[in-house]
Specification:
By secondary structure, the protein is an alpha+beta fold. Helices cover 31% and strands 39% of the residues. The two termini are 17 Å apart.
Length: 201
């Protein structure tokens, strides 16, 4: 599975949201698995969209055919767009599905990892972070993806920002030390996204 993460700063909120609804045509696309997104809780006017495709070939075919027509509806409503593709590596918790209807917030972490620490970082994700998140009340599901250049995406869905906040306050410091994250990671950027139900496809 291919995970696409898009982040941009919105300059025309109403126009952007109107355009976002045009993506409702995606389910007819071969290989499309699901899409959702919403507004950053930490940065005003920053929007995030997460899209899932069965394979890179299906995604490339969509980009060559239908993408520009659908994207035209949002032209001029945003700036500073960044889009990144990640290959699915494993679930965070179990049974990941690209569904957004049973979660309120998404926590996204984007890590650049030292080349000689990639194996350790992935192992810690599996053995330390995953069980901690999976065991937290309010954590619904998540996905761990990898991009060329030692870049990783950890996306977790939560029932509410309060549940995510509790996990963060109670456990993060201890987990960072245990996983030796500072030794592995060169750069870490993250956000908490309040999901917009009307963006779910």
């Amino acid at each position: 599975m291919l995970v696409k993460w898009i982040r941009c700063t919105v300059v025309d909120r109403r126009g952007f949201e109107r355009g976002q609804r045009k993506w409702a045509g995606l389910p007819g696309e071969p290989g499309f698995r699901g899409q959702g997104g919403g507004w950053s809780r930490l940065r005003p006017n920053v929007a995030h969209v997460f899209a899932f495709w069965e394979t890179r070939a299906f995604y490339d075919s969509f980009m060559a055919r239908s993408h520009d027509r659908l994207a035209a509806g949002q032209s001029g409503t945003y700036k500073d767009i960044q889009a990144k593709l990640f290959d699915y590596r494993f679930d965070v918790k179990t049974g990941f599905e690209p569904r957004f209807t049973d979660a309120d917030v998404v926590r996204v972490a984007h890590c650049k990892v030292r080349e000689d620490r990639v194996e350790h970082y992935s192992l810690m994700q599996e053995k330390v972070w995953n069980p901690a998140m999976a065991g937290s009340p309010g954590m619904v599901r998540g996905v761990f993806g990898e991009a060329p250049g030692c870049e990783f995406l950890v996306m977790s869905m939560w029932l509410s920002s309060a549940e995510h906040g509790k996990y963060r306050d109670e456990r993060i410091e201890r987990l960072l030390l245990r996983a030796q994250t500072q030794t592995d990671v060169v750069a870490l950027a993250g956000d908490v996204v309040a999901l917009e139900p009307s963006w779910t496809v």
